[in-house]
Amino acid sequence: MSHPGTNxxxxxxxxxxxxxxxNNPHQETALYPFFGRLxxxxxxxxxxxxxxxxxxxxxxxxxxxxxFVAGARDSxxxxxxxxxxxxxxxxxxxxxxxxxxxxxxxxxxxxxxxxRLYRTDNPLTEEDWLSDAGIALAEKxxxxxxxxxxxxxxYGYQLFKTCDTFYVFLIxxxxxxxxxxxxxxxxxxxxxxxxxxxxxxxxxxxxxxxITRRPRPRVLYYMKQILGDPSHDGQRRLSDEFLLALxxxxxxEPACLTxxxxxxxxxxxxxxxxxxxxxxxxxxxxxxxxDAIESLESLAQRELDAGLGxxxxxxxxxxxxxxxxxxxxxxxxxxxPHRSRPSSHASLVTLHS
Length: 353
Known about the structure:
Helix content is about 35%, strand content about 20%. By secondary structure, the protein is an alpha+beta fold.
């Protein structure tokens, strides 16, 4: 029997919650208990300490359905917002704020956007989720999530004004991609500058949001499994790739605090040979994702140029689904394992090393 608070208890819980999620694959919300439990374990095992004295100065907490809000909050101005599934926030201990930092402010560690991994025909088994079959399905659906993650970043810039670097885990089933966003320069606009009143047609704002150039992330890890192979007791534990990714996430402000959990269940396996992605891999993933975002923005602009939706309900990604489907189909076909890699970098390339 495992005991509450122990490593075995954590992995008992995660494996039970994995079983629940796999057997309810059509519901994104079926993944929330797994990541709620994991985030609680992560935040409760991180010591937020002063970079010089080592004194504890704050706490971390997981905030479900966080609200990234941009714009004035008065009754007349239309306020834009996005809601990541989970945000990991740091708050200061009473009277322990660092110099030049607001003791009442929350600082963003990273956020998670969680997506189901599902297909209507021949649903994936647990083994599929945690194998190349799951990665193949995640790659097919990957581009359709890019706008949402980029929009969350540009709203995050507005809310967390002291942070210049943001991290986001895009999670598809049990597969993660880690993005790094950097705040745009002073000459760049991350959100449409037009200020609309609430009594105006909100479709106008939706159109502006759709075509505004989005921030371009670096891709630090691409299509990696969160859970590793079963151990001798049949339990799956956190993969070494995911543990390395957690160790690479930092709070840029204040004081470049590293958000690395200290519990033994957050350490790589003894003798592990897993290494961080090379700079060449990061550059290739980044180039491919940025090209994909560029293509999606071009498709959105084509819709507006063609006059679609000008007098209809607000434009959303669902309105450009035919274009997205065509693009994703071409990506899938061009990077089939039975075909050589094309010379163009206009679509995503899978690198699993």
